[in-house]
Amino acid sequence: MCRSSSKSSTVNPLDLRKFKNFKLHRSSDRELSGTIKNIFGFHPGNIFLYKLAFRHRSAAQEIFNGIKISNERLEYLGDAVLSLVVADHLFKIFPFKDEGFLTEMRSKIVSRVQLNVLSRKLGIDRLVQANQSGPSPFRSIAGDAFEAFVGAMYMDKGYDFTKKIIINRIIKLHIDIDELETLDINPKSTLLEWSQKMKKTLDFKVIGEINTGMKKQYIVEVFIDDVSYGQGQDFSIKGAEQLAAEEACKTIFPAEETKKEE
Predict the structure, then answer these.
(1) Interval 185-208 mean pLDDT
(2) Choosing from 147, 221, 234, 241, which is the catalytic residue?
(3) Which of the residues 79, 144, 234, 247 is marked catalytic?
(4) What integer pLDDT is reported at residue 217 of this predicted model?
(5) Which residue ranges form the domains of the chain, and what is each CATH number?
(6) Fewer C-beta neighbours within 10 Å, C or N terminus of the chain?
């Protein structure tokens, strides 16, 4: 029985060493490896995965016949891995809590707002390569890069290693589970409650859509009394609304935002 092989024509976007156009610099690789060691306590095995994790689609590079790569695929993978690790961790530390509580707690930990804050706290946002010179808002760059980093770590080190890093170096050190239980981190709800209290009109409008090549993203703008207070971009309208509300809350409640990020 004959089987045709497609190895010669298959492009593996994770094997970046094959492509001359993907810029590699040994000194910068060592610097990135050292930074990851300082933050997370380990040296990467395949540094190319982590370079890719911090490359936003706005700065995507062509590697082969018009194919451009960014951190979007790793973000997709990291989102799934992070969700599983957090779900497993919560299941074990809350043996008597019901499914609704566990789901809500997981949502709080992996929410785009929380991941944006966590990414800035860890310094991941400073590692991202992006081009924000255009008009499109990229409000979730930091959180997206965090998920992509988790995806890179999973591909590089495996699930068990990734799980230990997420729990021991991230959740236990940077997330207060007890405080999170009582914390309302839903910026849209906060904004809605404030607008009702102040008797102001609040409106979220979808102002654009972007086809990234994998999945459509939505751009939502939030208006208070017909004045724009922020924009958000995400793969769902609900997620984009939350990011837009987060931007509005930074303007309306600057003291609270500063306190939250400390």
Answers:
(1) 87
(2) 147
(3) 79
(4) 83
(5) 21-180 (1.10.1520.10), 187-261 (3.30.160.20)
(6) N
